Amino acid sequence: MKIVIAPDSFKESLSALDVANAIEQGLRQVIPDCDIIKIPVADGGEGTVQSMVDATGGSIISLEVMGPLGLKVQAHYGILGDALNTGSASSASSIDKSHQHGAIAVIEMASASGLHHVQRSQRNPLLTTSYGTGELICDALNRGIKHIILGLGGSATNDGGAGMAQALDILLLDNQGKTLPSGGAALANLAKIDTSNAHPLLRECSFEVACDVDNPLCGARGASAIFGPQKGATPEMVKQLDAALAHYADVIARNGIIDHREHAGAGAAGGMGLGVMAFLNAELKPGVEIVMQTVGLADKIRGADLVITGEGRIDGQTVFGKTPMGVLKQAKLQGIPTIGIAGCLGENANAILDHGMAAIFPIIPHLSPLDDVLANAKLNLCNTARNIGAVLMLGQR
Q: Cross-referenced Pfam families, in alphabetical order (predicted)?
């Protein structure tokens, strides 16, 4: 029996590889000789770097960059390994493979420019910058990387990717020819964009951007109105930031760059969606599709008797591009039954059953405090997988 285990992480508890290992451990208690392939996956959000590094035997690059408020923070990104077409994932290698031409880098914007870097009392999108994300991109380019996957989300910024652009030596100037200061508010004073001295390796690199929102740059559904408040914006600040982003888009268009302000996803991550399209010539795609394609999920599940996927919570939102839904779609194309395992089941969790999932299982055996649930996640996963394996063996008799 061939079983493919392709889960996302269980947030605040287990990485995707840890989840896959626990499921394997449970299955082998009752099906010791089954052929198991583990493929840690993600949907482009938090945990994507670790999942893809684990799935390919890659490596993590850590470095100090500018945080959202201009202070230094520790950040990281991943270099995918050469195990894209091998049978099973292993832990990420500590060996630096990053100077191999043709390698792929995976960057999460939140690692450098995330909201977690800013204390709640200091959150101010008028001032926060995406410069650190640009530094991660710059480091990858300097290592010879020519394909970068960038995950948006979790940012503390509303600067339209201006800081990222500045880190890549794209000049953003005011009417006096001076460099714009950091932050979303400064965009109101943008007069000129000079790309003549941009990082020379940008042209040689292709960018895929994982983006799972469809918000435009400005307006009632724009970056400032929808995402600004969670980053510390007051109603007055939202109006100021929205006007600044609109002006920013006007100047971008006047400088001969395609105007993407109404493009679905332009407002993602405080307008970073617009920034990556304007300055990186990037294509926005659903995160789960990028991850599945990159780790070669379709090839790895071929011939499987069963696929097991999962995430920390399966609910009615899971069908809208979350990892279990992405895995299910790939398995359905090959007629392979799929089972979902979750830390818990939320409202409308059965929606995924209507899309063809064979069954879904929560792992929590009884009501417990959250800290206990998180601490016992590995054991509960293992026990749930063991029971699933036992039922599978009954069906073989």
A: Gly_kinase (PF02595)
The SS3 call for residue 207 is: strand
Separation of alpha carbons 122 and 116, rounded Å: 11
Comparing C-alpha atoms, which of 30, 6, 36, 34 is closest to residue 20?
A: 6
Task: Report residue 40 as tokens.
Answer: 């840690």
**CA separation, residue 87 to residues 48, 103, 145, 326 (Å):** 20, 19, 25, 20
Single-letter code of the amino acid located at 82 = D
- pLDDT tens track for 286-325: 999 999 999 999 999 999 999 999 999 999 989 988 999 9
Cα three-residue angle 141-73-227, rounded to 5 degrees: 85
Digit-coded pLDDT (tens) for 209-230: 999 889 999 999 999 999 999 9
How is residue 224 annotated by DSSP?
Answer: H
**Parallel/antiparallel/unpaired status of strands 72-79 and 171-173:** unpaired
For domain 2-38+301-396, give the fold: Rossmann fold (3.40.50)
At residue 277, the 3 state secondary structure works out as: helix
CB count, 10 Å around CB of 95?
Answer: 10
Strands 2-5 and 104-108 come out as unpaired
Q: Do the beta carbons of residue 76 and residue 63 sit within 8 Å?
A: yes
Between helix 16-28 and helix 48-56 the angle, nearest 10°, is 50
Q: Three-class SS of residue 287?
A: helix
Q: Are 167 and 139 contacting, i.e. CB atoms less than 8 angstroms apart?
A: no
Select the CATH number that applies to the domain covering 48-287 from these four: 3.90.1510.10, 3.40.50.150, 1.20.210.10, 3.40.50.2300. Answer: 3.90.1510.10
Residues making up the chain, counted from first to last: 397
> How many helical (H) and strand (E) elements, i.e. helices and strands, does the chain have?
14, 13
Which of these, 280, 357, 345, lies nearest to 317 by C-alpha position? 345
